[in-house]
Amino acid sequence: MLRRKIMETSAKLYNLRRSPRKVRLVANLIRGMDVDQAEYQLNYTVKGSAPDILKLLKSAVANAENNYGMDKGNLFIKEIFVNEGPVLKRYLPRAFGRASLIKKRTSHIEIIVAEKIEGKGRKKVRRIETKEPEVLSAAEMTKPAKEKRKERKEPSDVKEEKEFLEEKKKSAQQKGFFKRIFRRKSM
Question: Which among 21, 30, 33, 185 has the fewest CB atoms less than 10 Å away?
Answer without folding.
Answer: 185
